[in-house]
Amino acid sequence: MSLDRRVTFYHAPQTRSSGTLALLKELGADYDLRLINLRAGEQRQPAYLAINPMGKVPAIRHGEALVSEQGAIFIYLADLYPEAGLAPAIGDPLRGPYLRWLVFYGSSFEPAVTDRSLGREPAPLARSPYGSFDDVLKTLDNQLEKGPYLLGERFTAADVLWGSALAWTTGFGLVPKTPAIERYLGKVTTRPVFARVAERDAQWAAEHAAAAGQG
Prior knowledge:
Blueprint: E1 7-11, H1 18-27, E2 31-35, H2 46-49, E3 59-62, E4 65-68, H3 70-80, H4 95-117, H5 133-146, H6 157-171, H7 179-188, H8 192-214
Parallel strand pairs: 1-2
Antiparallel strand pairs: 1-3, 3-4
GO molecular function: transferase activity
Pfam family, one: GST_N
Protein name: Glutathione S-transferase
């Protein structure tokens, strides 16, 4: 029996979930879109809290499976569409590094950037989930120096996540645009999918703003 791979994707424009939208398009995935209007507070309404009690996007539903957290979503979707070639298979030497960088984003990079943006001192090294901001940036920068992609010559779902993340964090001045990061963004975010997502997100965001203003 063939697997029904169509997913339901919960998305708010111009948020972290934009990276997931880019991934769905890179994969050529079948999906139903459910837009969440953050301006109207839909993410805190019971209907969406039943999907993700954290009230955050992105989230996906595939059959009876609900998946939240960006790293988990990227792993799930790229494995669901193996023919797209965006996920090294189990047994491939790149599988471990691929998973490492998908998880590193949420476990180290996001907490470090959040603390830095709020001017908070990180926890003592023995208790910090990421060590220090400088260590996180250096670790990432050293990997990108090997380029052109995170895993060298192979473009993967991890690059969709990191390209999207670094575009907005450098855009807001939260992360310095080192030469390695700048080269990486020039390679990844110039892919046609990123421009299409940005254009569609801008349209949805304007519609949500107008709808919230009428409410």
